[in-house]
């Protein structure tokens, strides 16, 4: 697989391995960014979407294995699926905690199941070539999503605002461990897509659909969580774009303009994920992450 | 045209309004319009079969050097004369080396990443080991051909501002290039090299050359200090609080450093992670694939996954330690000896199995669905 040239000494031959992390949520407060219910819930949407979403990544990539003709790429895909499988379970733990705390996530997660199992799942009515092309289309959607997860991973590794705000340390470790692995494996889905379909059209149309749908899923998720948060007075705390911008100004959430510019870079013909984020920084964090260190064998 | 599938109703609205969720319904309908458009053209097939790209390189042993007692280094060059530069690598990278006997061993690259004409590995002879090191010492001579993988890195170096490198014996091999990079980048670095005796510790001259004023590299042979170093002493060599520690050496040293790490002022700990442990207490059994009827023998010292991969290279797996669950298969007949850390009792009762670690009693035949 031709890997794009990376920066000075940037790693591009990492052996991707899942880390068997465990998190204890017993002490997690409802608003784990203290005094910031909206910012907390914006990030909580990750926990709503990721367990189902990442299980779908795993199913889709397992399905794609027989199409891969490059042994190194296959190794990377296998490392990727293991990491994604562990991510899904780690976020599932937070959902279970939310339920125990009186915020029932199930109306939303039922929709996530429908979306990832039904709408984006295997379509048995497709056979032969059409089934294969649909599989590659799903890989293209995953490559587009992985662009955002790498963007978010890079953001959270650098989000000093979260440290200043006194975020719950276990949650911060979950987000940064996950973010670091997203940065670590950020090229895999894109390289797989290029291997299966090197064309530009599929990459672009997948991003054109994925970007807006993700934004909409996020907005719905924040509204849902705020409306169902038992510690907030009904109607008192409504999410707003103004509040988002204020929180991103304090470094608690990613800057919307940067997210939009990042999405635009994905559309460039010479885009490659190695141009975004720093593997070196991800590796450095994984050495210091309490969960990743405890998990290493 | 393919038959229209039975539509599954979208889930209810998020707020208990008692109707289907409109956004979900919209996504489902839009997908139904999009599917025929996006799958009409055979974009994968029109390129013809993709060439198989193997991840292996052919090399020859170009030089063989005794570096210390029982340690030789091999310089590997491309087998084809004039074969272009070798794939690049970074400190911490290793090669999978296929030895002539069929054994596959991983050896860290310890040369200079800037040298794209050759790789260098070093091997300590272990009498009574599984045989790989003896084969390197006894059977590989200048001119021997080998098949190796592309460099892969399971021990990446993050070039942190303050770095402590802890090497036990032959564990110096991945750390030597890290020390070289640390020196090149002007990092605040220290390296402690432990070993039985000075004569057993390779690359002392190369390390000394990286440390002209003798302030960064500490040689600590056990025989001059009355025994092995304890972890607190090793970690005490860190150049500054908050240093990142990279450690490579025998398992007891690694375990001791890990156990002492939280009490030390260091901030990050890195060591090479190996994914598959050797099979323990395995008995031979067989696998039958229900759909194809193929029968595969699983020997005592190999996993069911290894055997399935030989049969089909596209077999899914990932951690090879029984925790990620990617390799799960359905068992339709036979008794499973579960060794994983992932499946629930219910999943086991349903016949699921993680083939990377779980096995069967001696002589059992497990039938796998698919």
Automatic annotation (TrEMBL), chain A:
**What is its EC class?**
hydrolase
Query: Which GO terms label this protein's molecular function in UniProt?
Result: hydrolase activity
Which keywords accompany this UniProt record?
Hydrolase
Report the superkingdom from the record.
Bacteria
Enzyme Commission number(s): 3.-.-.-
Q: Name one Pfam family in it.
A: Metal_hydrol
Protein name, as recorded: Metal-dependent hydrolase
Its taxonomic path starts at:
Bacteria, Bacillati, Actinomycetota, Actinomycetes, Kitasatosporales
From TrEMBL, chain B:
The keyword Ribonucleoprotein is annotated on this UniProt entry: no
Could you tell me the keywords of this UniProt record? Answer: 2Fe-2S, Flavoprotein, Iron, Iron-sulfur, Metal-binding, Oxidoreductase
User: What InterPro entries does the annotation carry?
Assistant: 2Fe-2S_ferredoxin-like_sf, 2Fe-2S_ferredoxin-type, 2Fe2S_fd_BS, Beta-grasp_dom_sf, FAD-bd_FR_type, FNR_nucleotide-bd, MRET, OxRdtase_FAD/NAD-bd
Q: In this record, what's one Pfam family?
A: Fer2
Which PROSITE patterns does this UniProt record tie to the protein?
2FE2S_FER_1, 2FE2S_FER_2, FAD_FR
Where is each FAD-binding FR-type domain found?
A: 54-158
What broad taxonomic lineage does this protein's source fall under? Bacteria, Bacillati, Actinomycetota, Actinomycetes, Kitasatosporales
> Does the keyword section mention Metal-binding?
yes
| Annotated protein name in UniProt | 2Fe-2S iron-sulfur cluster-binding protein
Matching entries from CDD domains are given as: fer2, PDR_like
């Amino acid at each position: 697989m031709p890997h794009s040239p990376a920066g000075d000494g940037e790693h591009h031959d990492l052996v991707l391995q899942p880390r068997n992390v465990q998190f204890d949520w017993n002490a997690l407060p409802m608003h784990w960014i203290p005094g910031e219910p909206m910012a907390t819930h914006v990030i909580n949407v990750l926990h709503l979407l990721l367990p189902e979403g990442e299980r779908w990544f795993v199913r889709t990539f397992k399905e794609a294995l027989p199409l891969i003709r490059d042994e190194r790429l296959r190794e990377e895909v296998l490392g990727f699926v293991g990491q994604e499988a562990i991510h899904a379970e780690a976020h599932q733990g937070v959902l279970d905690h939310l339920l125990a705390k009186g915020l029932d996530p199930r109306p939303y997660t039922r929709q996530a199941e429908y979306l990832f199992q039904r709408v984006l799942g295997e379509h048995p009515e497709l056979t032969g070539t059409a089934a294969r092309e649909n599989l590659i289309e799903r890989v293209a959607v995953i490559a587009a999503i992985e662009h955002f997860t790498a963007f978010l991973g890079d953001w959270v590794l650098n989000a000093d605002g979260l440290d200043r705000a006194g975020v719950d340390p276990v949650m911060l470790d979950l987000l940064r461990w996950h973010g670091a692995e997203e940065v670590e494996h950020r090229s895999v889905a894109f390289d797989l897509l290029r291997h299966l379909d090197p064309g530009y059209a599929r990459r672009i149309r997948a991003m054109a659909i994925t970007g807006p749908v993700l934004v909409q899923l996020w907005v719905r998720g924040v509204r849902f969580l705020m409306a169902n948060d038992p510690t907030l007075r009904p109607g008192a705390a409504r999410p707003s774009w103004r509040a988002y911008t204020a929180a991103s100004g304090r470094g608690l959430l990613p800057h919307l303009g940067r997210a939009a510019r990042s999405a635009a870079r994905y559309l460039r013909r010479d885009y490659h994920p190695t141009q975004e984020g720093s593997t070196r920084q991800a590796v450095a964090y994984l050495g210091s992450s309490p969960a990743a260190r405890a998990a290493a064998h | 045209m393919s038959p229209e599938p039975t539509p599954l109703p979208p889930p209810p609205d998020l707020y208990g309004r008692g109707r289907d969720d409109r956004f979900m319904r919209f996504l489902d309908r839009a997908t139904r319009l999009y599917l025929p458009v996006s799958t009409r053209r055979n974009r994968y097939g029109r390129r013809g079969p993709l060439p198989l790209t193997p991840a292996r390189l052919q090399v020859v042993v170009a030089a063989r050097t005794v570096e210390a007692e029982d340690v030789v280094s091999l310089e590997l060059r491309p087998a084809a004369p004039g074969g272009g530069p070798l794939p690049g690598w970074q400190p911490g990278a290793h090669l999978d080396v296929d030895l002539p006997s069929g054994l596959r061993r991983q050896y860290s690259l310890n040369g200079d990443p800037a040298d794209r004409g050759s790789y260098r590995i070093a091997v300590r002879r272990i009498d009574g080991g599984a045989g790989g090191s003896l084969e390197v010492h006894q059977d590989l001579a200048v001119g021997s051909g080998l098949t190796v993988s592309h460099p892969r890195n399971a021990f990446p170096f993050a070039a942190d501002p303050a770095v402590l490198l802890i090497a036990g014996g032959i564990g110096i091999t991945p750390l030597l290039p890290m020390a070289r990079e640390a020196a090149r980048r002007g990092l605040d670095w220290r390296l402690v090299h432990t070993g039985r005796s000075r004569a057993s510790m390779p690359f002392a001259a190369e390390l000394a050359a990286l440390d002209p004023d003798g302030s960064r590299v500490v040689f600590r042979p056990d025989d001059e200090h009355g025994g092995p170093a304890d972890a607190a002493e090793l970690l005490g060599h860190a150049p500054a609080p908050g240093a990142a520690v990279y450690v490579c050496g025998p398992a007891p040293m690694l375990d001791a450093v890990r156990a002492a790490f939280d009490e030390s002022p260091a901030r990050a700990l890195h060591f090479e992670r190996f994914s598959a442990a050797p099979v323990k207490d395995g008995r031979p059994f067989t696998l039958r694939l229900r759909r194809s009827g193929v029968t595969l023998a699983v020997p005592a010292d190999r996993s069911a996954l290894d055997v399935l991969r030989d049969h089909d290279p596209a077999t899914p797996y990932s951690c090879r330690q029984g925790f990620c669950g990617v390799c799960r298969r359905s068992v339709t007949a036979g008794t499973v000896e579960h060794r994983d850390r992932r499946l629930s009792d219910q999943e086991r009762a349903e016949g699921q199995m993680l083939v990377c670690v779980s096995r069967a009693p001696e002589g059992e035949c497990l039938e796998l669905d698919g």
